[in-house]
Specification:
It contains eleven helices and 15 strands. It is an alpha/beta fold. Strands 7, 8, 9, 10, 11, 12, 13 and 14 form an eight-stranded mixed β-sheet that branches. The mean pLDDT is 95. The site of zinc ion has 4 residues, from loops.
């Protein structure tokens, strides 16, 4: 059984994504015989090939919202996963605007690709779905469009992906108990935006959640100019928690950060 988190992209915004200064293929989680592709933005398949992810092996696709850098390749990954619909399989979990469209936007998901899936599930924040050993909790996110985060709860570890959100006291609470926190820290500490986190917000959330590992990702041009590594260091200094600045192709073994596993081990000694 493979347990792995692979970052197929760490960029945000047209300045970064347009030139692929950082890629935008989302995050792939391998857990308990499932391959879960989160937020397949542009370059998903090219990045999957580069980092030895077989798109045919994907079984679950999670899309947090209908911004291009999170969902553009949703049809492409469904096509690759199902051989263009010949092998109807996989589950898509997303919100209403991705699947059915919103008032001023048609849905990103095409009718054809919807039919290639074994199942699609439309969820709102604070709901749950489960695929075998992996529970998928949707969480509230405060963004410019309908958006949600995901908390993947498995027997050994929990991984939280907050997606695009601003800070509010509610955000951290939903992710208490997570071993690994993945935060889209778009902006560095000297800049603020209405719809996304900056370094100071990340410090607040990490201090509240106290995960074993935090990964910052989804960097704007401004953040890249400030060097995410330095920003991660300042978060680490402020929170005293382990923090990593993601790079394209970063892989992590979530079992290494499992608090449950540690508790089990302690019992034996
Ligand atoms: Zn967004």
């Amino acid at each position: 059984m493979k347990h792995l988190i692979t970052f197929l992209g760490t960029g945000q915004g047209p300045m970064v994504i347009g030139k692929q200064i950082r890629a935008s293929g989302g995050i792939v989680v391998n857990a308990y015989d499932h391959q879960i592709h989160i937020d397949p933005g542009p370059s998903s398949l090219a990045m999957a090939k580069k980092y030895y992810i077989n798109p045919r092996a994907t079984s679950v696709i999670l899309v947090s919202h209908s911004h291009l850098n999170h969902c553009n390749d949703v049809n492409t990954v469904i096509d690759a996963m199902t051989f263009g619909g010949l092998d109807k399989k996989g589950i898509l979990i997303s919100n209403n605007s991705l699947v059915n469209g919103s008032e001023n936007k048609p849905p990103y998901l095409t009718k054809f690709h919807k039919n290639c899936l074994e199942r699609f599930i439309v969820l709102k924040p604070n709901q749950k779905a489960a695929v075998d050993n992996v529970e998928i909790h949707t969480t509230f996110a405060k963004h410019s469009v309908e958006c949600m985060g995901f908390k993947l709860v498995t027997p050994e570890y929990a991984i939280s992906y907050l997606s695009d959100t601003t800070y509010s006291a509610e955000i951290g609470k939903q992710h208490l108990g997570s071993d690994i926190l993945i935060l889209n820290v778009v902006n560095p500490d000297n800049s603020k935006s209405k719809y996304n986190l900056n370094t100071e917000d990340a410090i607040r959330i990490i201090s509240e959640v106290q995960p074993r590992l935090s990964v910052i990702t989804h960097f704007s041009e401004q953040m890249l100019n400030q060097d995410p590594l330095m920003q991660a260091r300042s978060i680490n200094r402020a929170t005293k928690r382990q923090v990593v600045a993601a790079k394209d192709g970063l892989t992590l073994n979530p079992r290494t950060y499992s608090s449950k596993k540690r508790q089990q081990k302690l019992r034996y000694y």
